[in-house]
Amino acid sequence: MGARRVVVAAVAVIGLLLVGTIAWANQAQPLRYVNLGDSYSSGAGIQPAAPGSAPACSQSQLNWAHDIASDTGATLRDASCSGAQTKDFRTSQSPGVPPQLDAISADTQLITLTIGGNDNNVFVSTIQKCATAALTTAGQGNPCERTYGSSFVDTINTSNYPNIVRALQDVKKKAPKARVAISGYLRILPATTGCYPIMPVASGDVPYLNNIENTLNNAVKRAAAQTGVTYLDVTAISTGHDACQLPGVRWVEPAVPVNAAPVHPNAIGEREMANNAIANLGLAKV
């Protein structure tokens, strides 16, 4: 193909993509929007609770999905639920909580989610086991890394990753025309030095836990790429807003003082997740 034809073809393709994006973002009817996922998506512990939501799901009226819907005028169905694993997309998580995929219909246009951290109890186990290990050294050294080595990372790569792929495939199958976007998890700890005992992680284990979180986010990113889903990267934007920072600066709450959902996003974090999604998906605000 000649150079001129290549240029003309490229311009035509870009034009079609732009037209499609503009039409999608500025449609006359409210966007039909579904939110799925775990506690990072539900806004666990953030008051007030979403009206009509199941108490067991700890779903907040200030989670990122409600922020997105409020900003864009979208019609939201929120099926996110604290503690959700990928299996809970297909089966009931608890009595009165239907499978999350039930919230999706063939005419759904936008789906957001966070999922994967609860599979194999990776998120909870990492925090609990590393906190217990830190007690043995009064917050010094790297007792968690010395005890558990690559076990958490290995589990994420061998089990959590394929589970996330399957969950995203199920979402796409249920709503083949929808734009699907999965977010990574906000940065929990600083890059090197922690803040023991506010975050009960030994100083030498901070890079170790960061590597585990990076591995989880990379698993989410790879699963998104494999299934044609948009990955919303939040690592860079949340750096410097971890749980060791002061109130008003941090986007994730620390373990001490004890709050409704320690080591989870606060309302600021959910708001920033929403802002990141709106910007990266090209959603039009009302």
Can you give a write-up of this model?
- The chain has nine helices and five strands.
- A five-stranded parallel β-sheet has the order 2-1-3-4-5, sandwiched between helices.
- The model is unreliable at 1-25 (pLDDT under 50).
- With 286 residues, it is α/β, with parallel strands linked by helices.
- It has two domains: 1-28; 31-281, Rossmann fold, CATH 3.40.50.1110.
> Mean of the pLDDT scores?
92
The tally of helices reads 9
How many DSSP E strands? 5
Major sheet summary line: 5 strands, parallel
Shape call: globular
CATH class of the largest domain: Alpha Beta
CATH architecture of the largest domain: 3-Layer(aba) Sandwich
User: How much of the polypeptide forms β-strand, as a percent range?
Assistant: 5-15%
Instruction: Give me the Rg, rounded.
Output: 20 Å
Kindly state the percentage of residues in helix: 40-55%
Q: List low-confidence stretches.
A: 1-25
The third-level CATH topology of the largest domain is Rossmann fold
Strand order of the largest sheet: 2-1-3-4-5
Structural class of the helix and strand makeup?
A: alpha/beta
* Element order: H for helix, E for strand: HEHHEEHHHEHEHH
CATH homology-level superfamily of the largest domain: SGNH hydrolase
What's the quaternary structure here? single chain
The N- to C-terminal Cα distance equals: 44 Å
Count of the separate structural domains: 2
